[in-house]
Design goal:
The protein has eight helices and eight strands; from the N terminus they run H-E-H-E-E-H-E-H-H-E-H-E-E-H-E-H. Strand 6 (189-193) and strand 7 form a beta hairpin. 43% of the residues lie in helices and 24% in strands.
């Protein structure tokens, strides 16, 4: 069954999709002939009948499409799922064909496409992840985080500490065992950590001098390995062994004042 009430309505919707795709190309927002992911936002086909979302997600999963339920859709919209059609060659006609095929796939679940946009294609390999990653931005965040910790604990400057790194899976089939082995080969302690929202890899480097250069040398190499294995860096933290005497009291006071007035955490992550 078509989601359109008449041939004229379908013709109007078709013309709108073709015009939008052409406008993106003509404005330079997208390049004709290049590959893009089509991100589609979907709604129930009928207002008085709930869609079969379980069937919709199952169909998208069987087709190999990424899909999820939007957490914070606009208040005036009733989006019930989002999906991504990967690597569509960008012409108005191919974008239209991809959206029509999606509607056909979702029709049994009574879900239809309402809005869409083109995005640069998601990386498929670790090599693509590595090529796209901004190490400059990551290093800047590392320097900022280290300086922030030193404001709380100035006596730790240059002191050896345990550096903890976290890596989250990003690509389907991210290689947990391969990354753990690669990190251990670099002298890091590494393990897979189980969590309710998903597992991640945690690596530790004891006796790391608390300087930007020392932290970044380890973080950069570990991040390269993580990206190649399908993971993305998700920050770092340090364990501060307690200081005794007045020095310890001063440090704890600085830490708690920063938490209270700075809105921070005692052990911030990058």
């Amino acid at each position: 069954m078509s989601k359109y009430n008449s041939d004229d309505e379908e013709a109007e919707a078709t013309a709108e999709i073709l015009a939008m795709a052409r406008a993106d190309i003509d404005s330079g927002r997208t390049r004709e002939g290049a590959e893009y992911d089509v991100e589609a936002w979907c709604v129930p086909e009928y207002l008085d009948s709930p869609p079969d979302l379980a069937a919709a997600h199952a169909a998208l999963g069987a087709a190999g499409y990424r899909h999820w339920t939007p957490e914070d859709p606009p208040e005036d919209e009733n989006y019930v799922l989002v999906t991504v059609l990967p690597r569509v060659v960008n012409t108005p006609e191919t974008v239209l064909a991809a959206l029509r095929a999606l509607d056909a796939l979702l029709a049994p679940a009574e879900v239809v496409t309402k809005a869409w946009t083109l995005r640069p294609p998601a990386p498929r390999t670790g090599e693509e992840l590595l090529a796209r990653w901004s190490f400059e931005g990551q290093r800047n965040r590392t320097a900022w985080t280290r300086d922030r910790i030193l404001r709380r604990a100035p006596r730790r400057k240059g002191a050896p500490l345990t550096l903890d790194l976290q890596f989250d899976p990003l690509l389907p089939g991210a290689d947990y065992d391969g990354l753990i082995a690669a990190l251990r080969a670099e002298g890091l302690e590494a393990a897979r950590i189980e969590g309710e929202a998903g597992d991640w890899i945690e690596a530790s480097a004891p006796d790391t001098p608390f300087t930007v250069d020392a932290i970044w040398a380890l973080e950069r190499r570990a991040s390269e390995l993580a990206l190649l294995h399908g993971f993305q860096p998700d920050g770092w933290g340090v364990m501060l062994p307690p200081l005794g005497g007045l020095a310890g009291l001063e440090e704890r006071a600085r830490s708690w004042l920063d938490v209270i007035f700075g809105g921070g955490r005692r052990m911030p992550l990058d």
